[in-house]
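Just wondering, does anyone understand what follows?

——
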Amino acid sequence: MQIELKTKATLLRDFTDIQYYTDGSLQRASTSIDSMGLGWVNVNQEAVCFSASAILWPSSMKAEMLACLAALIVSAPKAQVTLFTDSAATIAGFANLNRLTQQSVRK
């Protein structure tokens, strides 16, 4: 997966305004382990897409967050990134992260 993400990052490195559609899902299985699917499609170059699966501590929100993080990982550091997701919980989670980074820890 690391090589695949590096390759995609190379393909997208010149984009300063980049957009992704992201999705994640949780597959519950009674006879095997639960798994999460995650992925994204780049709007600027639809041929550049990514999908993966994960199994540890499965949840639908985690799958959605991993899809968003995977998109951010391959984006250029100074790029303006827009993520389109259907998960209100993921949007709220990222909003909460932004609020947490603005707090200071004092004793």
Summary: The two ends are 41 Å apart (CA to CA). The chain has three helices and four strands. The chain has one domain: 2-101.
